[in-house]
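Can anyone check this?
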Amino acid sequence: MATRADNKDGSCREILTGKLAGKWRVQFAYEDEFYRKQRISRVFPTKTDAKDFLKDLRRGSKIESAKEKKELTLGGWFDWLAENDWPESLDEKTINNRQGRFNKHVRSTFGNVPLTKIDPLTVRAFYKRLRADGVGDATVHGIKANLVRVFNQAVSPYGRVPMTHANPFRLTIASPTLRDAVAITPDQAKTALANESLTHKERAMLATFLLAGLRLGEQMALTREQLLFDQNLIAIDRAVVLDKKGGQSVGLPKGGKKRLAVMCPTLKEFLCELTQELKPHECLWPAEHKAHPRMKRSVYRTWDDIVTQTGLPADMSPHDCRLSHINWIEKLLPEVSPTTLKEHVGHASGTSVTEINYTRPLTPAQDILRNGLERLIESHAIPVAN
């Protein structure tokens, strides 16, 4: 609700209660250089002093000096970048991820601290405390990278901090231990898919990861209408997107890029069996008791069961299936062009302008890929590249 201080005249009122009773409070609102509303509030012993100060504010002679006393804080600068700068170059998911980490781990410590008053010693203690609280090394590195970027933008190009001011967040911290990715051979994949302990849904899920190379969010959102059985293709035009609070919604695939993924005969057989009674809009793997995609944690529970039953490497993840899938095509199917592979897995914008602007999916090229994948999964003796 607007108050008298929100207009351009400001307000001057006597304080009637509390320890400041009998004194006079001046309040005045103005827009800062970021077009955000800011408020000046000062207390004076006499009405005359308060009125004189308010007159100066109205003339503009006191605003600059009052603004100098209210330095730009890390939280205020972060929020301004998230609203005004990052949307020009980053997708919403990346911005949400940065905001989520800042609000959870950083704002309570540095949110109200002026940029020029952030002490590297305090920053060092902050990084140490994050690890002591159980925050993973990779997350700590992500937080550090975001804070370094935020402070750098305050220096250049926006000039909110002097060029001579060192970035207090640019401290060396221990590198996280990288997880070794798991890549399996087509023979291992075939053995796993033939395991009799898998249910129809589990087998179809494993086949979709291994033989279509889908990302986790794309698999979670997959519906019957995306399976183009008459064309032996899968229309990847949606994916589950997680917001900064952990909620899920269905949006466009990564990078906003739709594509057609090849469906080989073995994958087609499993998916036909799974979806024969599904309506077009229904999810292939819905949440329990809801016609919504399964939550990520639910998919991982199913994945853990699949790994246990099939004897796949214990630390293998759904994304490792995508890695294996791409590995097979790159190393064992030399007849498949790089462009066809990129179109199939959603990396079509990867290299040159020619590939981005002048190539389109071609049915013969997709047939080469489809037949090659089927040959790999049906063969018993596949040479494994080093």
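Reply from J.R.: I decoded it. The mean pLDDT is 85.
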